[in-house]
Amino acid sequence: MFTLPKNLSWRLSQTQWHCFLLGLLACFWISACNGQTLFAPSASNQSASQECQVVQHQLGETCVPFEPQRIVATDEIALEILLALDVKPVASGEPNLVSSRSRHLADKVAGVESLGKEEQLNLEKMVELKPDLILGFSVYSEYYPIFSQIAPTVSLNYTHTGWKEELRQVANILNKSEKAEQLLADYQVRITAFQAAMGNRLTQTEVSVARFYTGSQISEFRTRSSFPGSVLDDMGLARPESQNQSVKPDQTYIDVSLERLDLLDGDVMFAAVDPGAEASLKNFQKSPLWQTLKAVKNNRVYVVDSGYWIFGNILAANAILDDLFRYLIEESP
Question: Where in the chain are the domains?
């Protein structure tokens, strides 16, 4: 029987981590050949496996318990969907590029254990939590055999503009389809209210979404193929024509240098700033070209949280809509 060393440090370099995974996989195959399992499933997991539904997913098919009680979310997208469906996982991974969970989830994650960064999850803690389902979006393929030895594992495909269908997929697995449809219906009601409040301005207001990174000399604008782009499309808001040119169908962002700040311009700019990236934004604001932007001249650059403006699902979409109500209606000049 293979057991995880109690004092093993999980904060390894990327190379060390992949070497460790290869070694762990080797142990998996050796133990499999000897008729053993890598991790011993709990009695509750064994019982649950007797009554389950077969789920087809990105990395194969998995027999999922009908009513899982101890779910691990490998990433923040899965975490957000579970919370939106009133399902609290026992643990989740955190974003690779951000040091903590997004602020729009802060009041909902009490009691949810952190497994560390999504790309290097704490497997020891995961085993100790004895999950009966591991759920995530685009789970690393090298993790899948290991995760599957801990608990039934489902890896769903993430697409920036397909978030509504992804919500429905998770809801279907957890028998929460009615809840998902209610969430989407409520979202549509808010869209209708926003459009009514905007009136003629809706189709006359070009909105740009820019992102600023920590320590970076470049920014980017998010295209219509991105998550925020899909939300703006839901609202019926226009994008600057310069951003619609030379963009491939599946391209979610375009890098923007200090010399091409004109690409960020619009009637309104939402500047999605990563935690700690305020200095990067200030660096752009010092540029003479920044002062020529229409949104800057009209004092319509709004700094927002990249935690929900760049990636997300129904809760993030509603958080973006909160900002649209605030800046385009309630505080509109």
Answer: 42-158, 199-330
pLDDT tens, 161-178? 999 999 999 999 999 999
Two tokens, residue 154 = 């489902």
Whole-angstrom distance, CA of residue 327 vs CA of residue 323: 6
pLDDT at position 87 = 98
Of residues 43 and 131, more confidence is placed in: 131
| CATH 3.40.50.300 given to domain 42-158 | no
Domains 42-158 and 199-330 share a fold: yes
More confident residue, 191 or 257: 191
Q: Which CATH superfamily is domain 199-330 in?
A: Nitrogenase molybdenum iron protein domain (3.40.50.1980)
What integer is the mean pLDDT of 266-282? Answer: 93
Per-residue pLDDT of 62-115, as tens digits, reads 999 999 999 999 999 999 999 999 999 999 998 876 555 677 898 899 999 999
Q: What is the pLDDT of residue 34?
A: 46
